[in-house]
Each structure stands twice: as C-alpha cells, then as structure tokens.
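Appendix B: complex inputs.
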Amino acid sequence: MPIQGGFSDFESGLVQWLDEPAAPDFSKSVEWSRRLGERGLLAPHWAVEHGGAELDKEQVRFLESELRARGIRRTVSGGLEMLAPALLEYASAEQLTRFLPPIARAESMWAQGYSEPQAGSDLANVQMRCEDQGDYYLVNGQKIWTSGADDSDWIFCLVRTDPNASKHDGISFLLVDLSTPGIAVSPIVLISGRSPFCEVFFSDVKVPKENLIGGEGRGWPIAKRLLQFERNMLGSGGLSALTGRAGRKSLSEVAIEQIGLGDDGSLRDDALRERVARQMVDERANRLTGGRARGSDAARVSSILKLASSEASQRRYSLLMDLLGTDGLGWNSEGHSEYEASIPRQWLRSRANTIEGGTSEVQLNIIAKRVLGMPG
Amino acid sequence: MAATLDQSLATNEDQQLIREAALRFLEEQDPIAELRSLRDGEEPSGVSPAFWDEISALGWPGLLAPESFGGSGLGFRELGVVFEALGRHVASTPLLSSSVLATTALTLVGGWEDLPKAADLATGASRVALALEETNRFDLDRIETLATRDGEGYRLSGRKRPVLDAATADVLLVVARIEGDEDSLGLFCVSPNAEGVGMTPLRWIDGRRAAELRLEDVAIGADALLGSRLPRRELVEPLLDRAAATLAAELVGVSAEAFEMTLEFLKTREQFEQKLAEFQALQHRCARMFSDIERTISIVQEALRALDEGDADRSILASAAKAMASETARHVTEEALQLFGGLGMTEEQDIGLYFKRARTSSLLFGDAPYHYRRYARLNGF
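Resulting structure:
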C-alpha cells in the first residue's frame, strides 16, 4: 500500500486521479468505495498496515472536499464507521492487521449482531450462548434486525459467555464469518415492502477463539463504545443514506414543482411553505451540530444528533408525502413515476429511524443521565 | 448554576474570554436583583445610570463602532457572546438600540462623519435611538414617515412605534422616505427636544423601555440627512439581519440560563419521596430542551460568523437563527414555568423574568413565522 495514496504530489495527483477518463461514474458508490480503498483513501488517516494512507488532517480535509465537489459518495459501511473505530481501541495488534485491511478496501462487508428477540432497547439482555469448547467457541442463538446480513461476509456479535455472571459482565464481543456452517439468514419484510433487515440463526456454529475481542466477559464496554460510533454515523447523514436517495432532492425544488409559485413568487400554500422552510432550517441546524461534533465534544453530541436527525428524517418524508398528495400513494402501480413510487417506500422506511441504532427514548435517557446528570 | 453544561456561543478562546468576563461582571453587578425595581420604579431608562457607566467602562457600547470613532470595531461573534451573557442575566440595557441598531444604521448609510459628537456613541457618553418601525406587527415594508423638502432642509412627519429606548436617548435617528424618491430611505438626525417632536414612553413586561414617537412637521437642516440615502432594501435588509442575529444570541442566553435554573430546581425539589429529576417523564423533557438549545447554538454561531465574513447567504442564516432561537426560547421558558410548578407563577422566582424576556425578544424584529417566511422568500419559494 503506497503512502499518501501513492501520489508524488498529493493534491495534484489526487485531482488527476479522480478525474481520469477511465474512472467510474461519480454516482457509482460501490465502485468508488473499491477504487478509493485500493489506494487507502477509504480510511485515509489509518496506518498503511491497516489499509489506510496515513494522510494528515489537512490532506483528509482536502480529499473530503474534492469528493464532495464531485458528488462522489461511498457506501455506508458499518465495518468502516462502527466496528473499525471500536477495534482500534480494543483489539490486539494481530486482530487489527487481520480485520482492518479488508474493511479499508471495501472487501469485507459487516453486519451488526446486536439485537435479539428479547434484547431490543434492553440490549444487555442478549441470550446468544457462546461456550468455550477448548479449541473453539460453540455459538447458539438468534440475532434480529441485522441490517444487510444477506449481503454481508462477517457479523460482529454480542454473545453471552458466562450465564452465571451479572447481566453486563457475562457479555463478550465475537467476530463471526457468515459462511461458517450452522448459520441461516432470513430477510424480514417491512411495512415498506422491502427487506433491509434480517434474522440470523446460529445452531452449533464453531468460531475460532482468536475471533473474540477484548477478552471474555469484557464485551459490554466495547458494545457501548461501538453504539456511540453508530450514533455518529446515523446522526451525520447515515440515516438518509439508509432511508433512500430520492429524499436528498432539495425540498424547495420539490415544493415548487408540486405546488407552484404565486404571482408574488411565494409557494401557493402558506402552511406548506412554512413547513418546508422550517424543515430546511432544522436540517441545517443538525448538519452544523454534526460539524461541531467532530471536535472535542463528540460523545456529548452523538445522542443529540441521533435523536434530532432521525426525527428530522421522518418529518422530511412525511412532508414529501404531503407535497406529493395522492401522487405519493402508489404501490407497485403503473401511472406513477419512479420518483413518486420511491417516496412512500422511503416514508415507511423512515419510521424505523427513531427505533434503529437506539430508540429516541434511549437517546433521551442517555442525554438526561450522562449529560445532564439526572439521577435514577 | 449547573456550569458543567457549558452551553455557549463562543467559538474560540478570545470569545470565551470576553464571554467569561461579561458573565463575571454581570454576576457582580447583579442586574437580576435590580431588574424588578428598575422595571417598576421611576428611572426612565430602565437601566441605572451607575450600571450604564460600568458597561461603558467595559467598552460594550463601542463593540461594533468603527475604530476611527472610538469603537473597537469587533465583530458579531464577539457581540454575540456579550448578548448571550446579557440574556443569561435578563439585563435590560440600551445596548441593542444604541450600540447595535443605531450604530449599524450609521455604518450602513456611511453617516459617521455627519453625526455631531459621533465618538460619544462608542464611549456610551451619549445614547442614540433608531426610530424605524411603525407597526405593532413587525413589518418593514410599511414605513410611511416622510421627509419633505423645505428650502435647504426638510420637514419630517410621521409616527414611529415602537422606538426602543427613545425616551432617554440623546439623539434620535429617524428612518424616513424622501419626497420625490419613493424607493429610497434616508437616516435623519433629530433632537428629541426639537419643535414638533412628541413622545409617549412605553414600559414593557420585561423591563425594556420603548416609546411612541410623533413627528409633526419637524424642521431639520440639510445636514440632518446622515450619509447617503439608500434603496429601501439596502438599508432595511442588512439592518434586519444584524438585529435578528443579535437578538438570537440574546435568546440563546435566555434559553440556556432558564434551562439550567430549571434543571437545578428539579434536582433539588422532592415530591413523592423522590427528587423530581428522577422522573423519566421530566428527564425526557429536559433532554429535548437541552438538545434544542444545542442545535440552536449551532445555527446562531453560523449566522454570526456569516455576518462577520460577509457570506452570500448571511440573510438566510440570520433569519434561520432568529426563527429557531425564538421558538427555542419560547418553548424552553414555557416548559420552565410548568416544571417550576406553582413557584414559577410567583413574582419572587426569577424564572418568570426569563419567560417575559423570551416573549419580547422573540417578537422584536420579526417572530419565528416572520423569519420562516423571509427564509422562504430568500430561497426563492
């Protein structure tokens, strides 16, 4: 892996490479993730041995602004944005050199094995058994709401290694290859008609012991830390990426298309006009708060951001539905444009935004207790 | 005070220093204790002369004034942290009228050279009121006050209401249309003692002072027109941006302090054998308030920065900030009154002062719906 992307002059070399005629179309996020990964630019500040390019802050900013200017998006990667930062804090050197490079090259896709039927908001109630069999761990149980498990190569799981220990102390953090015998993945159909989530069943799955991170019974602090990275990912734009692309079209554009402007240049519906303005202000405040969050007080802001962004996402799709009127009601129907047909699906999908990644109620608990110091 | 929450508009160390000094100063001067007697007493300005002298010694009246006229020529970010501190202490001062509105108007028309004793404005030795609005529902499209030609000079006629701090101003700056040039506005310097000037002082719920100003054929010289006349939008819009951003900063202080007081109260008050702060229903309401204040701070900081750096979308951001800060302050202070229970309804508790200030500052220079409409207009819909 070449240092600093392999460019002799970083800035000019990067720009030239981004604009090569042979480069993929800017809209193709999967191809761009791979292409950036090959040069260490997907995890640009990481060490080269971990698949990064060892860019400094200034260079990362330059890279980000060049990508943004071209509208190049990368696929939202739980491996890159949630798991890797937690591994960097808790995994051994061997584990890092084994697991990070495929993540940095977008070669391994990761699913999140957290929730179980009896462990939703009460996540520490995980029951999936993980027994030490000497040479390996034997895993039995069920995970649910695992995003994209049917397209993933690996899953990171919270498992119970000690059923006799207290609720939090019996939990370990285990990495499992999804191609291991004994694993069955079954998609769950949602109210949107789509299946972004799966159930994953484990029966007598053998997992190598070197796949356990941080030691037996030490999984809960890792789990919580990773949740914070998840909130950051969801709060800073990850939700809209999960929920749908069409929602990104400028709200005022859609409003003008659908409702039209009066002679005085203002939208023909005063109430919707105020809702659109309010939504735009709200989203801007969230983006700015996300920008502040990258500084020193990231932990304090991550729950605020998750809470606010998920609710803003729901309001956005609800507003889009109202702007489209009955044109937004189509379901597998002819007579609706591709855009019109996509909105109700995304509106329905958005209802999960305040549930996934820690419900709004859990975020409010975290803010009240950890930030405001309220007792109980 | 739960100082650990540390919700602040400061974005760098210099601003943090200005903010802390302002908070310390206000803490020592304790205008909250003084506010009720000033509000109900005979002092016509709503601020004690001694307190104004102290403020002047700190240089606050000259924060925005050009250095060539005795000001410090600082930016809106620095002004913003001072107004956040003033909001935290619900201080009632002529800083908004004299040191922001009149000062900004003078700069916009290029009128510093033309104002007699202009340097007194920055030192606080003289106070200037800006007579701009003419309607009870904020609407700068309705400015009817007219300057008619009279020989070399003009005659001014019209009714201005509300004019903040006009009754104790040494000089009035009157925004008026000019006969024969209906699309422009001029800034006219008028003595409060001039013949034809009538004034009715107004006291407001939060201790602020304003006045109704009546101008009946007031004769002024040619030199009373300060700087140059401007197309109405070029005067009104930038003035509105700056007033809105300043008030948004004050409202952040009002919201943050009212919230901290409420949180502190919930942590000490017991009912049903437990602290109120232990009830989840109240915890979630507090978490939402905190989150709203934090997000409001983000957009107000951005609006202040955009004014300082002259961003193209500074007007859009100023309206976004005023809209959101107004809504947040109203919501937080309404919640605060509810959570204080019967105590919050008593005059003795300070929280009521925050509730009242949130109302006046959210109404002044356009309430939230006004600024959402302006935001829409500036974005072309």
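The first strand of chain A starts at residue 110 and ends at 113.
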